[in-house]
């Protein structure tokens, strides 16, 4: 595979991983009673209502959260993902850590994640792509939000529109999702979750 194709594939895979993390929301969704329906539509990114109560758990490169963290509510985590590198095993460590990171988030009704991404060929090289992300959900309040900031391609600051243009020819669905979030991110509605509604 040529370097430009590899770079495009890695960029798409990384953005897809970020999109998957933000899409892993309800685990027990059922139809809500009419009175409990939230009518708020999508809007600009806003911090979750529980952000002030967060106890932040910070994890380094390839570090997996402990199993018991899956029972924290709210669960607020910050991940360093700056060593997604081909030459030193960083990309492999990232891929091995992600399943446990995602699993830790599945049970909680209130989740807030901040992460810092950088994908490069070799240690110390200019990153092919880098950004800072924020993703949260409040299944009890039926809301979720996502924002990408400080987006850089080959070390040059880029807007979301630049990333959308690069992705659109080969990954149109991913480009559409990224375009919909805009430069400032978005907040949107989640389906009713009976388990979280009962938990309060």
Structural features, described:
The chain is an alpha+beta fold and 200 residues long. The chain has one domain (3-199). It is built from 5 helices and 8 strands. It has helices at residues 3-23, 90-105, 160-167, 172-181, 194-199, and strands at 43-44, 56-59, 75-85, 110-120, 129-138, 143-153, 156-157, 186-189. Strands 1, 2, 3, 4, 5, 6, 7 and 8 form an 8-stranded mixed beta sheet that branches. Helix 3 runs antiparallel to helix 4 (172-181). It is globular and about 50 Å long. Mean pLDDT is 80; it is low at 1-39.
Low-pLDDT segments: 1-39
Tell me the total number of β-strands: 8
* SS class: alpha+beta
What's the mean pLDDT score? 80
Order of helices and strands: HEEEHEEEEHHEH
Number of helices: 5
Task: Produce a short descriptive summary.
The protein is globular and about 50 Å long. Helices cover 30% and strands 28% of the residues.
Write the layout of secondary structure elements.
Elements: H1 3-23, E1 43-44, E2 56-59, E3 75-85, H2 90-105, E4 110-120, E5 129-138, E6 143-153, E7 156-157, H3 160-167, H4 172-181, E8 186-189, H5 194-199
Parallel strand pairs: 2-3, 3-4
Antiparallel strand pairs: 1-8, 4-5, 5-6, 6-7, 6-8
Characteristic key phrases:
alpha+beta, 30% helix, disordered N terminus
